[in-house]
Amino acid sequence: MADLPQDLRTALEAALSNVPAAQLTSSFQRLSTRYREEQAATSPIMASPADVITYSAYRMPATFAAVRSTLEQVALQLPDFAPVKQLDLGGGTGSAVWAATDVWPSLANVTVLEQVTEAIALGKKLTANAESPAVRTTTWTTGRLDQSTFESADLVTVSYVLSELSTEQQQNLVAQLATQQGLVALIEPGTPGGYERIVAARDQLIAAGHSVIAPCPHDLACPIPRGRDWCHFTSRVNRSAVHRRTKGAELGFEDEKFSYVVTSPTLRAHAANRVLRHPQQRKGLVSLRLCTDAGELREELVSKRQGPLYRTARNTEFGDPWPT
Ligand SMILES: C[S@@+](CC[C@H](N)C(=O)[O-])C[C@H]1O[C@@H](n2cnc3c(N)ncnc32)[C@H](O)[C@@H]1O
């Protein structure tokens, strides 16, 4: 469970306090239908102040959770990685900034590049009183990804953006990311389409000399049978009252599905295996579906007789490295 930091929750509650429920519900219907299409946008999808505030109510908790879970896995693989500079491309209202600084308090210099001025206005408002100096002093730049040359950074985040770009724009963006010296983190919805975009970007980055830090335990071809399955993970998100009202939802939580890849042109580190499903627990047995460092998919059964390994397996979660 990746809850929003308390200072972000407080800022969101203040920003949302005077927004009529009917406005949130109607913007939510339009935005969620459009985002589900996963079609490249010829003009910004989240365009008006009403869209932006609605996005912050129902998507920021989920995109924060997905980015945080992703970066947590990177921190496990690279315990000495202490980034100072983050560049967040298509940053919207800033979820990835909050997530990255939550994982790496070493961050001190953060820039968001975003095309929608209303998203930047809300992002600035939300970060104005953040506890983290890095979040508070974020530089918000208005601009288009397809018309910009990026400065280098220790960490570049591109979260839930690729689907809004044409295939050619995605390839141009990834080609530019491949020239970065720092880590490149791409996160997409955990749908077949999101996975395809991540695999295409992964292949392009590897061809340009990058190595995968997470989730893949290898730089070989993805072994998941295309068209029949797709690699994705989940993060549980608590729904606040306004989140539930915006979506017309009753449950107090939701599971955000996401696909991701994080690569580096210089660092080499990855898990020995990655757990690709919720581990199945049967009497005295835990069954793990793994992607291995040989670039293969494999089931591993861990039995109670294996003592400490069994106890570790029982506490292992979907998306974790194995052995943990
Ligand atoms: C679904 S939102 C994701 C926002 C944020 N990264 C997050 O994870 O919550 C996609 C964002 O990408 C921005 N975007 C899409 N295409 C862009 C482009 N060509 N240049 C700059 N920003 C772009 C949109 O304006 C929007 O804010």
TrEMBL record:
Q: Which GO terms describe its biological process?
A: methylation; translation
Q: Which UniProt keywords apply?
A: Iron, Iron-sulfur, Metal-binding, Methyltransferase, Ribonucleoprotein, Ribosomal protein, Transferase, Transit peptide
* Pfam families reported in the protein's UniProt record: Rsm22
Q: Does the keyword S-adenosyl-L-methionine apply?
A: no
- Say which domain of life the source belongs to: Bacteria
Entry's Gene Ontology cellular component terms: small ribosomal subunit
Could you tell me one molecular function GO term of this UniProt entry?
structural constituent of ribosome
Show the Gene3D superfamilies listed in the entry: Vaccinia Virus protein VP39
Q: SUPFAM superfamilies annotated for this entry?
A: S-adenosyl-L-methionine-dependent methyltransferases (SSF53335)
**PANTHER family xrefs:** 37S RIBOSOMAL PROTEIN S22 (PTHR13184), METHYLTRANSFERASE-LIKE PROTEIN 17, MITOCHONDRIAL (PTHR13184:SF5)
By what name is this protein known?
Ribosomal protein RSM22 (Predicted rRNA methylase)
